[in-house]
Design goal:
Oligomer: heterodimer
Bound molecules: adenosine-5'-triphosphate, magnesium ion
Number of helices of chain B: 18
Strand order of the largest sheet of chain A: 1-2
CATH superfamily of the largest domain in chain B: P-loop containing nucleotide triphosphate hydrolases
Number of strands of chain B: 22
CATH class of the largest domain in chain B: Alpha Beta
Shape of chain B: globular
Largest interface: A-B, 37 and 43 residues
CATH topology of chain A: ABC transporter involved in vitamin B12 uptake, BtuC
Distance between the termini of chain A: 22 Å
Shape of chain A: globular
Amino acid sequence: MSSETALATGRRARGLAPFLRSQMRNIAPFLTLIFLSAFFAFASPSFATLDNLGNILTQVSVTGIIAVGLTFVILCAEIDLSIASIANVTGIAVAYFTLQESYVNIANIPLPGAVAIILSILLCALLGLVNALGLTVIGIPSFIMTLAMMQIAAGISALLVRGQIAYKVPDMITTLGSGSVSGIPWIVIVAAIMLLGGHLVLTYTRFGRYVYMVGGNREAAEYSGLNVKLILGAVMVISAVCSGIGGMLGVAHFGSAQQNEFDTYLLDSIAAVVVGGTSLFGGRGGIGNTIVGLFVLGVLNNGLDHVNIDSFLKILIRGLILLAALVINVYAQRLREKAAE
Amino acid sequence: MTVGQQPILELQGITKSFGGVEALRGVDFALYPGEIHGLVGENGAGKSTLMKIIAGVHSEFSGRFLIDGKEMHFRSARDAHAAGIAMVHQELSVAPDLTVAENVFLGNQPTNALGLVQWRRMAREAGEQLARFGIDVDPMARLGDLPIGLQQLIEIARVLFSGARIVILDEPTSALSPPEVERLFATLRRLREEGTAIVFISHFIEDILLVSDTVTVFRNGRKVAETASAATSKGALIEAMIGRGGEALEHSYADDLMLPQPSDSKVVLRVDQLSLSRSLQDVSFEARAGEVLGIYGFMGCGQQELSRILFGKLKPDSGTLAVDGTRKTFASTAAARRAGVALVPESRRDMLFHQEPVYKNISISILDRISALLLKPVQERDIAKRQVDQLQIRPPVVGLDLGMLSGGNQQKVALAKWLTYPPKLLVLCEPTRGMDVGAKNDVINIVRDLRTKGLAIIVLSTEPETVLSLADRILVLKRGALVREFRNEPVSKDRLLEAA
Ligand SMILES: Nc1ncnc2c1ncn2[C@@H]1O[C@H](COP(=O)(O)OP(=O)(O)OP(=O)(O)O)[C@@H](O)[C@H]1O
Ligand SMILES: [Mg+2]
């Protein structure tokens, strides 16, 4: 997308230094990834193995699926704080519509698998639509709107499971979430397909261009006669649906559906997108960045396990890395503006 | 008058390039205290670049930079500010979310012993300063809510009263109407008396000749002439700027001009009894196919609001719009565009994507016509290339980020955007703002060409020249109401000013 054109023109019209400066947003996360990988490979012999690569891929899959939609949202300079809650409620819903073992004490409504899946997707799409309407029609800032939705979705989850745990989901979801084909986990394949799909939409479709333009300068997008509200609304729905899919597969992957199961995914998904270099101010970045961000996070989480660090320290280290990424994100924006001035 | 005096600022052999492109080549420039120094040149000639070097915005360049005879090197705008240099940039650079008072005091708000901002004092002093400049505005209003011309005036006021020894004004009058321009000039003369050195960039040669003591002409990154204003003429300056006879290019519109017989072609737009709180009252008019309707008025007369209503960006309190005889209430700009209306607003910042390449800026408004689902980058570039050639946008590289173009060339891109598949009704706000004489001429020709193709065109401007050079029929808007229509009769700059 725009990074390719920036590459082409960048080489032609300016020197190397300004070019590197303007590309800081793409380079820095990549260097971080290489550095972290090298560090852990050096620190632990069990890190740099093919098996462990498989582990990392599996570990970041659910985050990856959720992050696809979130990338769209952040590219539009909005935020979605309800992703983890929506993932949770969708995962619970798909279990709620599935026949559970007799010892599971939930007053659920068993339906055929396909119907359960469709209803669950409709549910998350509906929640996304509520986000969209709140943001565009009423004009509530996305930060607040999705904060409310976070509570609403958590409330629906609570009402559905009432503190209990459900285990069964439709067979198709079980396969996609925890099965594998010729050694490759299905969930990795689904994540890869969704990331690829997101990339193709953002790079090669008209809608994708509009997302970048709305994020780059919303006022200008409106003066160009784009339907900005429609685009923002669509992006919120996409985010919710990606979260829902991540939630359903996640439930199958974890083997159970319960309240608060996805809480860490909110921060992880935002971190993946932002660490990857997608601008919080909108209009810059993309799925490519998100993939790098996912790997940075995956390598970090997984690597810390290999080097046997105090697990409480781990939390702090992750926080610090996130802070560093935010600093780079904001700084990259300034450098770019400077290079362009 | 400045003979024998030491220059306050002296630049020697300044060369500046952006990557491979040389924006300035070996420029010498001297500025004396108590002097108003005019700067003219075509779009992209390098005027803004030189001024940004002086103001510390561009810190990498080659050549010598002397202040009061001492060699200096600014690393940032802050350094320049500390040395007593203040600049009004061509692109409005105010903080729209802050209040008027905060903008006036940007960076040096009065504080009390505890370091807290003294709001009341700040508001009072800001109000006084602005009043001295003839601006009557609530100091606690949010700046972004004011019309763009007023924002520009406030920015100018801030710089003029900042106490700087060197004041640089890069096209400050482009958003102002004649009374404000006069006030600005009076203030500049007063500052000159006090010994301030002033650089004044403008594409209005008459203004330059009127107010400046010395004029420097730029062409292609070089200084090609420097003379006393009294010793030159408009024609000579234009010739130095563009290298050919300028007389034919610029009309002064002092004499009467005969407006043509009004056309009786199809009515494309009918506006009926449009009102908007304090901005517009019962505005009714129509625009016809193949006609250029000019709407003239001073800043704040409601032009901006009117144009936004036509494009669905603002909703009127009452009144109706009809396009091609069908009544419309535009729910969004998208709806207006679908109905065949296009708007070029006066502010480039609102209109363009500075971080995106030129071709994406041009193709954005027609993407849905060339691609249903997938983008067609090759076709996009071709279309953009054609527009870039037709409007002679410099440099002619469609892949360049828009932010790298000079101000006037950005304005051309804003126009190019709507020319590819022309709409039924084209609304142009200040279409020639920031353009050099040659480019203005190009725009005039393009608009005439569109008119013969049968478009209805509305040109809104606070510059009499713009309206006079383009319009077949002229409406005068005064404090939100239409007060006069010129049709099939003689009109001149003075007659327009009188009506407004
Ligand atoms: N940040 C930048 N990166 C690359 N090129 C630039 C940049 N800024 C200016 N230029 C180029 O330098 C040249 C001079 O631009 P400059 O803005 O000084 O022109 P100008 O005389 O002020 O024109 P205008 O009347 O249109 O404002 C132009 O060719 C422009 O494209
Ligand atoms: Mg300029």
